[in-house]
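Researcher: We're teaching a course module on how sequence relates to structure. For the next exercise, students receive a sequence and then see the predicted structure as tokens, so they can try to spot secondary structure elements on their own. Here is the exercise chain.
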Amino acid sequence: MSYTIKEIAQALGATALGATDLEIDSVAEPADAAANQLALAMKPEYAGQIATGQARAAMLWDGADWEALGLKAAIVAPRPRFALAGLSAMMDPGQGWEAGIHPSAVVDPKAELAGDVSVGPLAVICAGARIGAGTVIGPQCFVGADCRIGEGGFLREGVRIGARVQIGARFIAQPGAVIGGDGFSFVTPEVSGVERARETLGDQGDVQKQSYARIHSLGSVTIGDDVEIGANACVDRGTVRDTKIGNGTKLDNLVQVGHNVVVGCDTLLCGQVGIGGSTVIGNNVVLAGQTGVGDNLFIGDNAITGGGTKVLANIPAGRVMLGYPAMKMESQMEVYKGLRRLKRLFADVAELKKTVSNGAESH
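Model: And here is the predicted structure for the students to work with:
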């Protein structure tokens, strides 16, 4: 679908300049843009690439001299990357799926599907499920018994949602996401070596053969509005109470959220983050890739962790953490600088020892 420069700018709340009746049907990087594409040169360092391509129009940064760049039209936004969110939504061609309920889908007669719901090939929707208006259930998806998915949801291929999961409006799940699998909860008849090691910080006591009994997950998962779950991410159901994900929170690919975890609103959990059971995470938290969080911990609002951080203790609100174990980022960087100096320090100490030794022998 094509849009004029004027239409795009109005939709984004941006400013249209030049030949605003030019039609655009897609976007591209400046060096690769064709005449019918909008070049994305949102920073000055990308402007030089415009001449390499054939773009007639571009999205530029505020204050850019679009005419000097040889363009016929431009869209200028105070915060171009934020404008890109709306632009990408306009230009998204979708997955090419047909609307309606595919003949191969299995929809239980006791499920309730609101108007304009689409169900893809080989999808399964169980009894008691309620699907909100305009929701798209992709191919080979599974929606368990008594689930609720709000309006405007979008489940990509192979999403699995367990029984009794409650999800708000405008939910997005990428391929292979699993919501409502059982928690990883097992217990031994006697106190285990792991429990002893945790209490003693290392001593298991007399290690004996132990078998594990399974604790069933009687809770479910509650997810708010405007939540997105990445590909192959997992959110486990609670043991007794629900695992909870707040409004506006986004999970990246391969994220693991353990049983009974509570995640606040507008929080970002980046790729390969793992969160142990019963941990509470506040609002507007950002956990960078491969952050690991132990169980039964608390992370306050607006906290940030750097990539690869391992959280073994509570984090207060607003704290920026890094390292293993996690410590304040500025402290971790000082430790890292100290480690970098160790080789030189050892050489200096060896030289001092040699000097002292030679001095003693001379006497």
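Model: If you want an answer key for the exercise: The mean pLDDT is 94. The helical segments are 5-12, 80-91, 193-200, 329-362.
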